[in-house]
Amino acid sequence: MSDFLAAAIQLTSTQDTDANFAAAEEQIDLAVRRGVDLIGLPENFAFMGDDARRLELAPALAERCRSFLITMARRYQVVLLGGGYPVPVGDGQHTYNRAELVDRDGQVLASYDKIHLFDVDLPDGNTYRESATVMPGDALPPVVDVPGLCRVGLSICYDVRFPELYRHLAGAGAELLMIPAAFTAFTGKDHWQVLMQARAIENTAYVLAPAQTGLHYGRRHSHGHALVIDPWGTVLADAGQQTGAAIAPVNASHLGHVREQMPSLRHRRPALI
């Protein structure tokens, strides 16, 4: 692991894909100008809108998203995560929600299809059924050794409520957990930061949490507050509620110190649980 600067991008994506890609590149460019080496785009960075329209666009959009990530990584010489975009399953009625990590040379280091789907009835009257049009992945997310940076564990949004997933990532050697999201405004105000801090603290790992923010379409409103959190649980950067980025340093010696001072990963008793 080395020291580097990381950015969690914050967007307000809509149904206008051209505008979404332009906004994403603008934030990538701004982050790279500040010396960032690792960038995360949020869930649904390329499209956030009606499910029927997403299914219609998915075949072409999946190809465009992968091409965009490869082009951006090469153009800006940065390691880039596309935090979640639709990939057709093949039945015409569902997509996968896929995150993809690309290196500076445009090589895809890892892909992950979201396994926990957001099917909830919220107290504010909003109902979400992600599984109506999204197929869950069938494999745990990977941990990737990114040359020159660190070991990165992937996940997406609602996954953050399942701590066993992150224990798996920590057990596989993750030093930084990427949690791109489109957290609802209603749940986010109470749950977002505390969940992100909990995942950092219990796994003594950095957390990079790109986010959606603001009003996207209809009643769909996202919480914002893209975060970078250190292994002690300290919020190093918070993007607030505007589009932009949370940018902060990732420090190898700090990670080592925290894991020595609080060696909870070594104190686990998995045989008894």
Which helices and strands, and how do they pair?
Layout: E1 4-11, H1 17-33, E2 38-40, H2 51-76, E3 79-88, E4 95-102, E5 108-113, E6 119-121, E7 127-129, E8 143-145, E9 151-154, H3 163-171, E10 176-178, H4 185-203, E11 206-209, E12 211-217, E13 220-223, E14 227-229, E15 235-238, E16 244-250, H5 252-261
Parallel strand pairs: 1-2, 1-12, 2-3, 9-10, 10-11
Antiparallel strand pairs: 1-16, 3-4, 4-5, 6-7, 8-9, 11-14, 12-13, 14-15
Quaternary structure type: single chain
Q: Helix and strand succession?
A: EHEHEEEEEEEHEHEEEEEEH
| Integer count of domains | 1
What's the overall geometry?
globular
CATH topology annotation: Nitrilase/N-carbamoyl-D-aminoacid amidohydrolase
Write down how many β-strands occur, each being a DSSP E stretch of 2 or more residues: 16
CATH class: Alpha Beta
* Unreliably modeled segments: none
Radius of gyration: 17 Å
Kindly state the percentage of residues in helix: 25-40%
Largest sheet: 8 strands, mixed
Mean pLDDT, all residues:
96
Going by CATH, the homologous superfamily would be Carbon-nitrogen hydrolase
Q: Please state the structural category.
A: alpha/beta
Task: Outline the structure in words.
The chain has one domain (4-272): Nitrilase/N-carbamoyl-D-aminoacid amidohydrolase. Helices cover 30% and strands 29% of the residues. It has helices at 17-33, 51-76, 163-171, 185-203, 252-261, and strands spanning 4-11, 38-40, 79-88, 95-102, 108-113, 119-121, 127-129, 143-145, 151-154, 176-178, 206-209, 211-217, 220-223, 227-229, 235-238, 244-250. The strands form 3 sheets. Strands 1, 2, 3, 4, 5, 12, 13 and 16 form an 8-stranded mixed beta sheet that branches. The longest helix is centred in the N-terminal third of the chain and has 26 residues, at 51-76. It is globular, with a radius of gyration of 17 Å.
